[in-house]
Design brief:
The protein has helices at 20-31, 47-52, 69-80, 168-177, 197-208, 304-322, 337-342, and strands at residues 8-10, 13-16, 36-40, 57-58, 67-68, 86-89, 93-98, 104-108, 113-116, 118-121, 127-130, 160-164, 183-188, 213-216, 218-225, 228-236, 240-245, 248-251, 255-258, 274-275, 288-290, 295-296. It is α/β, with parallel strands linked by helices and 347 residues long.
Amino acid sequence: MPDAGENIHTTDVIIVGAGPVGLFAVFELGLLGLQAHVVDIMDKVGGQCAELYPEKAILDIPSRMSITGAQLVSDLMAQIAPFKTTMHLGEMATSLTKLESGKWRLTTDAGTVIEAAVICIAGGGGSFTPKKPKIEGIEAFEGKSVFYSVRKMESFRGKNVMIAGGGDSALDWTVNLNPVVGGMSLVHRRNEFRGMQATVDQMYALVKAGKVNLQIADTVRLNGTNGQVESVTLKNAEKGEYNVACDAFLPFYGLTMKLGPIADWGINLDSNKIPVNTENFETNVKGIFCIGDMCDYPGKLKLILSGFHESALMAHGSFHYAKPNQKLRFEHTTSSSSIQAKLGVTS
């Protein structure tokens, strides 16, 4: 039981995850008159869109020929603005208990307590951290001249950048940052790349044009002072150890995904994925739903647009828990005066 006088937030649905799918879930719930609180371990909304590719073009959002991750998140926030949703950012959901009333009580590591009829997990792949290279002393350079993501391309303008890795992120940023930087090297331990072939081809074209210095080698150590890298020592069978100058080092070795406390909530898990039904994306636990990359079902595609579809059906499934004595009326936004009033739209 909470301490006497403890402030407990109450709402209809608690959404765990503030990525694009979690944000759109707020909108779909709002259309049905359901309020939501959103909890996310990151200190800002947007999930992987904000963390990994804020300035990278997304090309498969319906009706948008091209939109950056940052713009998509901004538009989703504008879309849910009429619902005045409470965001608990920089907080991790740590415990979840079922109350005698049938509601859920969720507590965060910041001591926030929220009660709701429904829990919606929209945490992408879970909380994620970058895989760091095994380079002694790299911590001294992190955030100063070593970066695991690109928040703003402009911050690298004119710099001599070294990117390490052979996957999509390393190749994408080799291509996308190239027009901005003053010099660029790409280092990978072997002459085989895991990225999309079209991006691999673009990278090799830049190498041929002399715009990328490709090094097939292992990274050994960083050289510099006061957190500023000046060169990276590389090693391969042909040259042994040698230095390549740079003033920014971007290792893109992928992410480590962790479910965190969600794994202890009694939900069925299959290879760190949460099986759901396809009627409303409810888990094996009544009143707990899962949408986005973390949920799994036959034919599942890890696409933002798939998550949007899942959000709509989840909202309808949630209504019966949040408003058990009310009848759900399905309405179209184009013709419903009540929905248009909620959104502040005048016909």
